[in-house]
Amino acid sequence: VARSLPSQWSKQYGPVMTVHLGPWCIVVLSGYKAVKEALVDQADEFTDRPPVPFFDRVQRGYGLAISNGERWRQLRRFTLSTLRDFGMGRKRMEQWTLEESRHLLESLRETKSTPFNPTFFLSHATANVICALVFGERFSYDDVNFLRLLQIMQAERRLESSPWGQLYNFFPKLMDHLPGPHHTVFNQLEELKAFITEKIHQHEETLNPDNPRDYIDCFLIRINQEKDLAESEFIYENMTATVLDLFMAGTDSTSSTIRYAFMLLIKHPDIQEHMQKEIESVLGQHRAPQMEDRKSLPYTDAVIHEVQRYMDFAPLSVPHYATKNISFRDYNIPKGTMIIPMLHSVLRDEDQWEDAWAFNPVNFLNQNGNFKKNPAFLPFSAGKRACVGESLARMELLLFLVSIVQHFHLSTPGGPSSLDIKPELSSFVKVPAQYQLVVTPR
Ligand code: HEM
Ligand SMILES: *[C@@H]1O[C@H](CO)[C@@H](O)[C@H](O)[C@H]1NC(C)=O
Ligand SMILES: *[C@@H]1O[C@H](CO)[C@@H](O)[C@H](O)[C@H]1NC(C)=O
After folding, report:
1. What is the structure's pLDDT at 59?
2. In contact, 64 and 76? CB cutoff 8 Å
């Protein structure tokens, strides 16, 4: 199996290494021990983000994913508790996700076993889960307005990982004055923000402070509570940016993971069959899955974990930053250093995994076939900056994947050997290849 370059370097240079790239001094942390020691044991020092001009331009410095200090702390705490209120406790998100799953199954059934590219349906389904959370509504798969917004998000993603996006990070002032595709995307993003702003206005008109329906309602209530507070982070502009964050971070990540899971299940028919048998024995052919079924589905749970481990969606995580001098092990990491916790090296750490380089659910199973946890399972990173959407993403992965495998056999016209399962690294995240899927009702 081909090993990637940075992990060869880390074998040569150890768990902490320094790289110089353009104007940046970068410290790369690798292996479970070093990453955990930094992000968890020294969490306070390793929590901040670097200035990224491209995102600053998109978000104007607001929002959750790129901010630091008090603004970040407040928005993060608020987002986590709102997710929790609509999430596991109240079962609201579970019901929304199940409803979306029914629409997805319906669309898959309509393909009538003919080949199609699953990318569109999956990103629409995961975007709708975020819509349910923030707007309290979903959009039909043929809603033209919503399709346009999905396209804008995709265009932003492409720009972000293109040379134009990278150039913007090195020369923001210059790029603002040069022509190029970035201006088109920046303008389109204004359209997306206008859509969000319109939704916010609609929410204001129908708000019932005693019965918040979604994220925007909760934000509006908070704005109102803090309206006399000079220092409040809860103001309109910050709300739009934070909502945009949830879309940007929550849509592609989850839908690409499901798209990749299908690929791996086609590539490993024995694993798909084992998973299907387990699901059928627990749920039968018709009952929809619930989160509570997870513990009765140890093999399926192991497969889903293994998909995330093997996929390695964000191999370099999202960059962190030293906002002051940090002393770490025997090193001094000076203020202004970008810090890359290399999740790739954690998810492939040979000291932590039984079969680090293969796709093998045994990495999450014990001898009795029960689910086995592993502390090095960090696809969502760790510590105070770890993914806020983790519980939502894990719910979507379980409910969508279980429903689909319960109802359909997955295959591809060229057979398993025609699939190239090597995801492409695009900027900071892995993008699985496009392929034709065939879903045959069971
Ligand atoms: C399989 C799906 C997902 C994966 C693999 C994933 C992974 C990650 C990773 C690696 C980070 C960076 C953590 C760090 O800096 O140390 C992150 C941050 C983030 N994720 Fe996710 N994520 C997923 C789904 C989601 C979903 C569904 C949402 C929305 C609810 C979401 C919202 C966010 C946000 C807002 C941040 C920034 C947090 C901050 O800066 O404080 N993610 N995610
Ligand atoms: C967003 O919150 C920050 C935090 O104090 C505040 O300084 C800023 O003014 C807010 N945004 C806007 C547009 O006012
Ligand atoms: C941070 O470290 C640098 C050397 O790497 C040193 O010159 C500077 O004085 C330190 N700053 C503080 C505030 O300790």
Report:
1. 63
2. yes
Averaged over successive runs of 10 residues, the pLDDT of the chain (442 residues) comes to 52 80 85 96 94 69 80 90 74 91 96 95 94 92 85 77 68 70 78 88 94 92 89 80 87 95 98 98 96 97 98 92 93 93 94 96 97 98 95 96 98 96 80 95 94
**Domain residue limits at 39:** 4-411
The separation between the first and the last C-alpha atoms of the chain, rounded to the nearest angstrom, is: 34
Apex 157 CA angle, 22 and 391, nearest 5 = 105
86 domain residue, yes or no: yes
State the amino acid at position 326 in one-letter form: I
- Say which DSSP state 364 is in: G
Let me know the angle formed at the C-alpha of 90 by 393 and 79, rounded to the nearest 5 degrees. 55
Distance of CA 381 from the midpoint of ligand 1 (Å): 8
Q: In angstroms, what is the span from residue 223 Cα to ligand 2's centroid?
A: 12
CATH of residue 155: 1.10.630.10
Q: What tokens appear for 370 in the block?
A: 């029960």
Inside any domain, residue 96:
yes
Protein residues with CB under 6 Å of any ligand 2 atom: 62, 71, 231, 233, 235, 237-238
Task: Output the CA torsion 141→266→249→295 (10° steps).
Answer: 100
| Tokens, residue 434 | 């496009």
Taking CA atoms only, the protein residue closest to ligand 3 atom 7 is: 334
* 288 and 404 Cβ atoms separated by less than 8 Å: no
In the DSSP assignment, the letter for residue 296 is G
How far away, in angstroms, is 235 Cα from ligand 2 center?
Answer: 7
Q: Which two tokens stand for residue 216?
A: 């925007």
Token look-up 């084992």 returns 274
Q: What is the pLDDT of residues 306-326, one digit of tens each?
A: 999 999 999 999 889 999 999
Given this model, what pLDDT does residue 430 score? 87
When divided into structural domains, the chain yields a total of 1
DSSP H/E element including 341: strand 338-341
- Could you tell me which residues are beta bridge partners of residue 29? 16, 341
Task: Report the candidate in 189, 222, 208 with the shortest Cα–Cα distance to residue 74.
Answer: 222
Ligand 1 atom with minimal separation from the 397 CA: 1
Distance from the alpha carbon of residue 336 to the mean position of ligand 3, in angstroms: 11
Residue 212 to residue 172: CA distance in whole angstroms: 40
